Amino acid sequence: MNKRFLINKIVLILSTVAATVGLIFLFWILGTLFMKGLATMNWSIFTNDLVDGGIRNLLVGQFMMAIIATVIAVPIGAMAGIYLREYSNNNKLAFFVRNLSDIMMSAPSIIIGVFVYAIYVDRVGHFAGWGGVIALAIMMLPIVVSTTDNMLSLVPKELREAGIALGGSKHKIIMQIIVKAAKVGLMTGILLSFARIIGETAPLLFTSANSQFLTFNLNDQFPSLTVSIYNLATYPDQASKDLAWAASFVLTVVVLIINLGGRYLTRNKHK
């Protein structure tokens, strides 16, 4: 018994130390980012485009690509998740799709960027915003599939049986009972997947590239906040580096708000 308590204390101490070290680095990064970002913030960066020392076009471009990618990925991923949980009966196809989804979620984002470059950018002959949209949608798709599958599995089977007892058809039971019961979890998964793609850089380097001007033409190079941060940080002049810090601060705040919103929805659901 004493040996078990000793091992438990050693593991507890090691776990606490590891968590503390991780938190130190996290707060170090966030503290540096907030100090440097806030020091370089001013209202003009939100009203000017990159060509004039602002990030207005970058914010518009980044959110536009992410929102369009969400509109594409969410319906496809949700329908795939519904099939896996409600229609597949855990057949071989469902096993294959679940494994493929797990592999895609762990795939490096730069690989997805290279893939989209090969199938789209190389064929059209130039960088384009649609390439970025496709890459982000591919990244978001497996997260939505997995989230939908898992959230629907948490819905009690008694709700399904109640729907059948009332004479409801299968698709009505799914849409009007099961999906509604899991809607908070589904929305949380969508928010978290959106938070992931909104901060991606690697796939956009190979697909949409960047533009210094405000544009809504997805058939041409498209402004991207993350790609611009990467580019600005490599420039020698201090003004570009300051703008990179300000843009990084804005992006971090956006991602934090989305993540905290998703966690808040989950916590309220559990309550």
Lay out the secondary structure.
Blueprint (H helix, E strand, L loop, with lengths): L1 H38 L4 H4 L8 H32 L4 H15 L2 H16 L4 H25 L3 H9 L4 H12 L1 H16 L3 H4 L19 H10 L3 H33 L1
Can you give a write-up of this model?
- The protein has 271 residues and is mostly helical.
- Helix content is 79%, strand content 0%.
- It has twelve helices and no strands.
- It has helices at residues 2-39, 44-47, 56-87, 92-106, 109-124, 129-153, 157-165, 170-181, 183-198, 202-205, 225-234, 238-270.
Question: Which parts are unreliable, with pLDDT below 50 for 5 consecutive residues or more?
Answer: none
**Strand segment tally:** 0
Estimate the strand proportion: under 5%
Order of helices and strands: HHHHHHHHHHHH
CATH top level class name of the largest domain:
Mainly Alpha
Mean pLDDT: 88
Question: Helical amount among residues, as a percent range?
Answer: over 70%
General shape? globular
**Radius of gyration, Cα only, in angstroms?**
22 Å
CATH architecture of the largest domain: Orthogonal Bundle
N- to C-terminal separation?
37 Å
Largest sheet: none
- By DSSP (H or I, 4+ residues per run), the number of helices equals 12
Per CATH, the superfamily of the largest domain is MetI-like
Structurally, the number of domains stands at 2
Task: Kindly identify the CATH topology of the largest domain.
Answer: MetI-like fold
Helix/strand-derived category reads mainly alpha
